Amino acid sequence: MASSKYIFVTGGVVSSLGKGIISASIGKLLQARGYKITIQKFDPYINIDPGTLNPYEHGECYVTADGMETDLDLGHYERFTGIRTTRHNSMTTGRIYKAVIDKERSGEYLGHTIQVVPHITDEIKRRIKYLGDTQGYDFVITEIGGTIGDIESAPFLEAMRQMKWEMGRDAVSIHLTYVPYIKAADELKTKPTQHSVKELLGDGIQPDILILRTEKHLDDHLRAKVAGFCNVDLECVIQSEDLPSIYEVPVNMQKQGLDAAILRKMGIPVGETPQLGEWNRFLAMRRKATETVNIGLVGKYDLQDAYKSISESLSHAATYNDRKVNITFINSELLEDTDDSAWDTVHSQDGLVICPGFGQRGITGKILAAKYARENDIPCFGICLGMQMMVIEFARDVLGYTDADSTEMNPDTQHNVIDLMKEQKTVTQMGGTMRLGEYPCEIRPGSRAFQAYGGQTDILERHRHRYEFNNRYRDEYEREGMQCVGINPDSDLVEMVEIPALRWYIGTQFHPEYSSTVLRPHPLFMSFIKAAISK
Ligand code: GLN
Questions:
Q1: What pLDDT is stored for residue 28 in this prediction?
Q2: Nearest to 204 by CA among 259, 152, 148
Q3: Where do the structural domains in the chain lie, given as residue ranges?
Q4: What's the whole-number mean pLDDT along residues 95-119?
Q5: For residue range 473-519, what is the model confidence (pLDDT) as tens digits?
Q6: 357 C-beta closer than 6 A to ligand 1
Q7: CA dist., res. 405 & res. 14, Å (int)
Q8: Ligand 1, closest atom to CA 359?
């Protein structure tokens, strides 16, 4: 296409409606029509990035290949579309303001008063158009976090209003709202949607397309009512009913003509509806799978969004192994109190994932879970902090260093099997200073990891950590049966360990969960699930 087109996705009434899934689905559907797309998220909070945020606030922190700590919605974008996002796909109010203030300090504004309009809004627009203008995407989909009416999102909406005004039909606005069902009256209520659209109109934005989240089917009468009250064409009132899986959403959106409606609004010929062949095959496998594989996630955050990418990666891999995955969260702190029911849950799993994390809380439970898996030969996957706990457990129990630890937990340990990297020792700022993003790793031929990766020896995986395996202990580990099978060829850092004598006991310093997608499940998750189902 001659010039890039822009699609804005906003949400109203309540949060957690699944704007990320809708944005990812739009991306998927346009991609299926042969367009080059990207998806970007604006978060209205003031943090520079979510890297320093507690997962209880906004769920997991996702990491792009180029090392940006971002909102978890970028994970959905990559999993749905297979695109690779970068630091340009994730923005926060904090980053925008910082850029503007830095420019002010360096005198770039030539004596002008710096204001939200036009300086902040221009900076926002610049960062939206950057993807279209310099990266050559046909469509840039921009999801605006938060809910319409929030004070924080006002500058983003103003930037969007201006872009719509400047670009005419090359920019469309999609608004996602909620239609509650009132049980006592047995009625679906559209009033909150009408109010939300009014609020948007107050910001000078007429939505082109409405997507109504609903637990019950909306009949044509209700859709027509919404269309009439909100100045939206009937074919542009789409409903997003609860579905058994988020991966059904693109198909449901296509059935209702969402992608066609977008193209029509933009004056682009619609043409034939593309087949979602591979995607539908994935869905068919999912629907067909009846047997389950039980995976326990041993972690400290009792919140499903905290381990989003891990759960999705397990789910992709289970589908390709003709299984439904049954994921049970196991609070590692309860394992420390030898809570019988928590241990019963551990004992009933086909495989365990020892989750990533930071800080002291819950690590003893993770070590105990790693020990249980090692001693009972239960398939066990340690990710980042999870791998570090496998390494500590092995040192304490097999190498005989009872005080072995990570210096993150005990700076004075005599046996610092996990330690800070040299360059991290002088770091004083917390945000954005970890080992972040993609690094190469060389896999030892013949290892279980090598088999999992289908015989590949050179891989790239994404990182997010400060601490590392201490190479002083490498030979001892190797001698005693824990092999360092993945090594960074540039820094010689250990990236993967495994115990070959066990069925599947692998720890990765990197985060493979960030790069599993629907159509390309991650090889380590695939082989972990295979091991978990082969008793
Ligand atoms: N806290 C550990 C480190 O910084 C592990 C981090 C993680 O699990 N992402 O090295």
A1: 98
A2: 148
A3: 5-280, 290-534
A4: 95
A5: 999 999 999 999 999 999 999 999 999 999 999 999 999 999 999 99
A6: yes
A7: 44
A8: 1
Q: How far is CA 377 from the centre of its chain?
A: 31
Q: Render 463-478 in DSSP notation, one character per residue.
A: EEESEEE-GGGHHHHH
Residue type, 377: D
d(CA 364, CA 300): 11
Written out in words, the top-level CATH class of the domain with range 5-280 is alpha beta
Does the Cβ of 409 fall within 6 Å of ligand 1? no
For residues 435 and 498, give the distance between their C-alpha atoms in angstroms, rounded to a whole number: 22
For residues 506 and 6, give the distance between their C-alpha atoms in angstroms, rounded to a whole number.
Answer: 43
Interatomic CA distance for residues 303 and 524, integer angstroms: 24
Q: Report whether residue 310 contacts ligand 1, using a CB cutoff of 6 Å.
A: no
Q: Look at residue 426 in the predicted model and tell me its pLDDT.
A: 81
Whose tokens are 């499940």? That residue is: 521
Question: Is 290-534 a CATH 3.40.50.880 domain?
Answer: yes
For residues 528 and 535, give the distance between their C-alpha atoms in angstroms, rounded to a whole number. 12
Q: Mind listing the pLDDT tens digit for each residue in 27-54?
A: 999 999 999 999 999 999 999 999 888 8
Write out the catalytic residue numbers: 384, 511, 513
pLDDT digits (tens, 9 = 90+) for 153-182: 999 999 999 999 999 999 999 999 999 999
Q: Is residue 301 within 8 Å of 61, Cβ to Cβ?
A: no
pLDDT over 90 (residue 13): no
Which residue from 298, 309, 465 has its CB within 8 A of the most atoms of ligand 1, so it is best to mutate? 465
Judge if 5-280 and 290-534 fold alike in CATH terms. Answer: yes
Reported as a single tens digit per residue, the pLDDT across 413-460 is: 999 999 998 777 888 788 878 899 999 999 999 999 999 999 999 999
pTM over 0.85, yes/no: yes
Residue from 254, 262, 255, 280 nearest 138 by CA: 262
Does any ligand 1 atom lie closer than 6 A to the CB of residue 384?
yes
Q: Which residue has the tokens 């001659």?
A: 2
